[in-house]
Amino acid sequence: MKKIYLPVLLSFLIQLTFAQQKVEIRQWMVTNTQQINLPAFADVKNVDGETFDASNLINTTQIDDESLKWNIKNLNDDSLLFDQTKNNNLFLLKSYLSVNRWTKGTLNITLNCYYQVFVDGGPIKTKNSADANSNKIQLELNRGNHEIMIKAITSEENVKLAAQFEYADKFKNCNATVSLNPERYFTINDVLEGNHVSSAQISPSGKYVMINYSETVHGSGKSKNYTAIYDLNNNQNICVLRNKDVSNVQWTPKTGRLSYATNFEGKSEIFVYDIETGKEQSVADGIADLSSFSWSPTEDFIIYSIYKKAEKPGDLKRVYGAEDRLPYFRNRSFLYKVEVSTKKITQLTAGNLSANLHDIKPDGTKILFSTSRMDYSEPPFSKQNLYEMDINSFELTTVWEDKNYAGYCQYSPDGTKLLVQGGPECFGVIGVNVSDGRMPNSYDTQLYLYDLSNKKISPITKNFAPTIHSADWVSENEIYLSVGEKDYIHLYKYNLKSESFEKIELKVEVLSDFDIAKNKPVAVYSGTSISTPQKLYSLNLKKESSTLISFPEKERFADIQFGKTEPWNFVNKNGTTIYGRVYYPPNYDEHKKYPVIVNYYGGTSPIERSFGGRYPINNWAANGYIVYVLQPSGATGFGQDFSALHVNGWGFDAIDDIIDGSKKFLASHPSADAENVGCIGASYGGYTTMLIQTRTDIFKTAISHAGISSITSYWGEGYWGYTYNAGAAKNSYPWNRKDIYVENSPVYNADKFQNSILLLHGTDDTNVPVGESLQYYAALNLLGKDVEMVLVDGQDHWILDYEKRIQWHYTIISWFDNKLKGQPQQWNELYPEKNL
């Protein structure tokens, strides 16, 4: 037998352990050079005794993009980029490095210049010397194509470059490649960063559009908000407002002037500004605690609301009713009137209840407002009173008292009727349309006409399947509606004469908001589509044609590659069609196998096909997953009978639909890897996820964010637990429906848990308290189940902090990669093992 000496064996093992893979970066896009001049007195020492040299330029010089011309450069062994260049010439280099999984490695750069290195737009390394020493830059690359850019300033005649990317052998299947192709995948930074249209309002004349933008900066996550005034006739901005102290910007309803509030030393002042003349006028001042304001149609007066915070109760607080648990419940809102001509202010409401303005009568003679009080005798545990007030005499007329399930109301154009948004039972059974034995879903919002003279009620959406999001009564016979229809949000027009609905074709699949000009048949709207970010359009209401106004993210998304999407529906055990959709990875190959993520909510609303959001499905697909999204029984937007299945449906039909649908989906999609399927849901969907792992073994792993493990503790402790259950579990309580509160609570079924789960929760969650995940983790941990928990410090129900949101996102991706792809490296990097 041949002897192997110990030193040789150790050397071999060390080489094996630290084996490196390497890819040369020889393909570059290179710009022409720009001469950079040193500033005056550069040779004079500053107060610190230092002179200014070329190394300082790398941080201070801005690039003149218009004068740059890009050329392709393939480096040879001599690595020569330029010869016979002058000192202090600036140029850019760009190449693209692609990996098909999360990869950790080293970027080695040798360049005899001063330079900065940027990866995906972010600076990662600055070299303040022009020697030819190599720099080693540690990189963590997520799946996709990454831009490597170098900004350099010359110091010698001959410029040479050598670059490689090295990575450990454990990442050898990352398929690292170099190219000049800028196409890339959709990332979490594309969700969180960039410039977005947040809202828009059109002037009464239809000439101008007020566009509110929010721009989030890469790296810091801080936002810059500003407002642009856009001329629809000339298709251009005429001014931009960037004062952060300006709020409540809106058009005046008659003259079309800009109106806004400013705040100084705790007091607000309201102004109007005439775009045509440039004249600004103060119409109200000295207002404390201003919340919002509305103009009368005649512009004679303003109704504004103040928000008054209650005094803190001290260290010990007596709680007066379940809602008094909420720290803000004792705060109150009251209404005031401002006479524009005199600035005279009059308080309109007082007392122990907040007053909420609904509308101002078109002739300016009355206002419509409501108060609400808690009533624990029956669901929904609150009662609304609606009032009309004569704005001159203060005479008060009660429209209704102690109304259940009532929401927002507005006047008809002639002021004789009201358009009422409310639940199916807002006016008893007149708006209800469900099968025998089912209870209507109070979250399935309906529309009613209410005649103020004879109190006659007409339920106009009773037989209309979509759920109402908002409505605008624009003329005697036309009401425009934003509605949730399946997983879309559409715009409809309702004709009061023919009692018919007409869908208005838009350029977006999910309408965000819309606004209609008072004196011209034109509107503006914004929205997204399944693979398209927010866009703003104008809409000709006569021709029903749309024109793009603003797409601020056009350049950012020009090179992003999306996979295909398609609908996929199935018929459940009750013979009902359950709608869904599929996202495929970019460059999908039907002959390959892909891991699968199943996503759902299971609560009272569908997962809309909107773009981005808290759970960016396009990004999950970009990470190499087939994603199946379904809308199980109980969601609104499919008709009242379907949404009624949510009521007292905890743990019943929705769970069955998800399991049944997932099995049928896997059976009908050969490229879906049935051995590597995960599921994810949040809030009610987190509850669904916790419970579903006790009902089936088809999901190899699961992720629950802010899930509910005990319906009882959520019902009693969550800020809105018992009020949400007034609809979701109507007339059902822990003492009379143990089949729901105990038998269908995940924690009481923990012994039946199968496979694995990751529990995510914000530590400051007031909606679903963090204890819901803590107690489920404790149960599964004691039972020896495969469970992990990650708590996000200081975050509520939604993860909003920029840096925490990014880490939370990669926690989700790395967990799925670990469990469904057998790639534990990123998860272990984020959460290394500790011997506690």
Give a short synopsis of this structure:
The protein has 836 residues and is mainly beta. The longest helix is centred in the last third of the chain and has 19 residues, at 802-820.
Attribute tags:
836 residues; eight-stranded antiparallel beta sheet; eight-stranded mixed beta sheet; 14 helices; 14% helix; 40% strand; disordered N terminus
Secondary structure topology:
Layout: H1 6-17, E1 20-24, E2 27-31, E3 34-35, H2 54-60, E4 70-74, E5 80-82, E6 89-99, E7 103-111, E8 113-119, E9 122-127, E10 134-141, E11 144-154, E12 159-168, E13 177-179, H3 188-192, E14 194-202, E15 208-216, E16 223-231, E17 236-241, E18 246-251, E19 258-264, E20 267-273, E21 280-288, E22 290-295, E23 301-308, E24 332-339, E25 345-347, E26 356-360, E27 366-374, E28 382-390, E29 396-403, E30 406-411, E31 417-422, E32 446-451, E33 457-459, E34 467-475, E35 478-485, E36 488-495, E37 500-504, E38 510-516, E39 522-529, E40 532-540, E41 545-550, H4 554-557, E42 565-567, E43 570-571, E44 577-578, E45 580-583, E46 594-599, H5 617-622, E47 626-630, H6 640-643, H7 653-668, E48 672-682, H8 684-692, E49 701-705, H9 711-717, H10 721-728, H11 738-741, E50 756-762, H12 771-782, E51 786-792, H13 802-820, H14 825-830
Parallel strand pairs: 46-47, 46-48, 48-49, 49-50, 50-51
Antiparallel strand pairs: 1-12, 2-4, 2-6, 3-6, 5-12, 6-11, 6-13, 7-10, 7-12, 8-9, 8-11, 14-15, 15-16, 16-17, 18-19, 19-20, 20-21, 22-23, 23-24, 24-25, 26-27, 27-28, 28-29, 30-31, 31-32, 32-33, 34-35, 35-36, 36-37, 38-39, 39-40, 40-41, 42-45, 43-44, 45-47
